[in-house]
């Protein structure tokens, strides 16, 4: 399954936004373990870089972008995507129409977002993070264990697997 990950889900993890970071971390873990193919829109990377530069500086922002580039496929935003987004009916925000069209043209099966209402007229399947995790769990032989992350701080994408392992160990005790 190829899934476009909305900018808000990426930010949930990078900014440790409670309570959403736990689901985002599990989605990243599925991508990291090749259980799903993760895809980001090119505009997501520019938005993440802009926000991360303000929060943690340009050098760390570039490191995080490189990590995202290693982990995810990137759906281009080109003339065809922009024209299709302009022609798309029912999207309140052009940004959402662009992301949807980039996902569609990159042959994504679904888009995961916390703002399903922004994609009411989408052609693709639109899932909330927890909903996607439940679908993957139900259709895949590997069972993604739900863990409580508490108020941990995930400073880097590299910390996702380590944080999940630590949380699972704590749950076992």
Describe this structure in words.
This protein is α/β, with parallel strands linked by helices and 173 residues long. The chain has a single domain (2-164), classed as Rossmann fold, CATH 3.40.50. Helices cover 55% and strands 10% of the residues. The protein has helices spanning 7-14, 21-32, 42-56, 58-71, 79-87, 94-105, 129-139, 159-172, and strands at residues 2-5, 37-41, 73-75, 110-112, 125-127. A five-stranded parallel sheet has the order 3-2-1-4-5. α1 (7-14) packs across α2 (21-32), α2 crosses α7 and α5 packs across α6. The model has no long low-confidence stretch (mean pLDDT 87).
Q: Outline of this structure?
A:
With 173 residues, the chain is an alpha/beta fold.
User: How large is the share of residues in beta strands?
Assistant: 5-15%
Radius of gyration: 16 Å
Write down the secondary-structure element order: EHHEHHEHHEEHH
Q: Spans of 5+ residues with little confidence (pLDDT < 50)?
A: none
Question: Please, what is the average pLDDT?
Answer: 87
Q: Under CATH, the topology is which?
A: Rossmann fold
Annotated CATH architecture: 3-Layer(aba) Sandwich
Quaternary organisation: single chain
CATH first level: Alpha Beta
Q: Given the helix and strand composition, which structural class is it?
A: alpha/beta
Q: What's the name of the CATH homologous superfamily?
A: 5'-nuclease
The number of helical segments is 8
Tell me roughly what share of residues is in helical segments.
40-55%
- Taken together, the total number of domains comes to 1
Report the count of strand segments: 5
């Amino acid at each position: 399954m190829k899934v476009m990950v909305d900018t808000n889900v990426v930010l949930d993890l990078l900014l440790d936004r409670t309570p959403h970071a736990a689901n985002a971390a599990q989605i990243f873990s599925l991508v990291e373990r090749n259980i799903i193919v993760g895809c980001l829109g090119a505009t997501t990377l520019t938005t993440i870089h802009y926000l991360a530069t303000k929060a943690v500086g340009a050098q760390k922002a570039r490191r995080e972008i490189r990590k995202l580039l290693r982990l995810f496929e990137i759906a281009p935003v080109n003339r065809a995507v922009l024209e299709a987004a302009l022609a798309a009916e029912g999207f309140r925000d052009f940004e959402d129409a662009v992301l949807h069209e980039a996902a569609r043209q990159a042959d994504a099966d679904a888009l995961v977002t916390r703002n399903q209402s922004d994609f009411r007229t989408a052609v693709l399947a639109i899932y909330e993070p927890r909903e996607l995790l439940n679908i993957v769990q139900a259709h895949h032989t590997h069972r993604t264990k739900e863990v409580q992350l508490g108020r941990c701080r995930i400073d880097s994408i590299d910390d996702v697997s380590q944080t999940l392992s630590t949380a699972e160990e704590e749950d076992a005790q």
